Amino acid sequence: LNKTTAQITALEWYNEGVKLKSEKKYIAAYDAFKKVVSIAPSYKQGWYELGWVCNERGQYDESVTAIKKLLLLDSVHQQGYFELGYAYQKKDLKEEAISTFNKLLALNKNFSSAWKNLGELYRSKSEFAKSLQSYTQYLQLKPNNYEVLYNLGYTCNMAERYTEAIDWMAKALLVKKTADVYNEIGFAYFKL
Q1: Which of 15, 35, 168, 176 could potentially form a cystine with 152 if both were Cys, beta carbons 3.0 to 4.6 Å apart?
Q2: Residue 166 to residue 186: CA distance in whole angstroms
Q3: How far is 148 from 150, CA to CA, in rounded Å?
Q4: Tens digits of residue pLDDT in 110-145
Q5: Cα(92)–Cα(184) distance, integer angstroms
Q6: Could you give the angle at which helices 146-158 and 112-124 cross, rounded to 10 degrees?
Q7: 136: exposed, middle or buried (C-beta count within 10 Å: 0-12, 13-18, 19+)?
Q8: How confident is the model at residue 7 (pLDDT cuts 50, 70, 90)?
Q9: pTM score, two decimals?
């Protein structure tokens, strides 16, 4: 395969960025991925990695910009949609995040983290039925996740569905015993 100097250089910077990312050296990884996309602007995975590192560093605006460039190059890049939805969620742009996670789920209904994040977003909007549905979808893919079991119980308490809250918290207790779970169970029994 005959590659131009720019492609080889971009690939070398990409490999360096991946190495730095695996070492959690995100500032240096950011610099490497910036070089990748400046040398080879059509390098899809360079845009993805840049967006991911920006999210990890809390640079959500820059992540959105990078991931949108990726999605122009690859409109079905599932991880790209996840990172974009995550950045929107962190920026408290709930409708944009929900829309983005739903686009991802239209591509892959088994992308479990999208279901989990939708559960969080819908709960934050007091759309409890949609939150519970999203968390339940997640559990169909990844059963026995303590955080999601807890969030289901917590959301049921918020929705004044106390018997269901107790059931979900009992399942959470089978995975991990925490004071938070016992507090939610106590709250539910108090309200019944």
Answers
A1: 168
A2: 9
A3: 5
A4: 999 999 999 999 999 999 999 999 999 999 999 999
A5: 26
A6: 30
A7: middle
A8: low
A9: 0.91
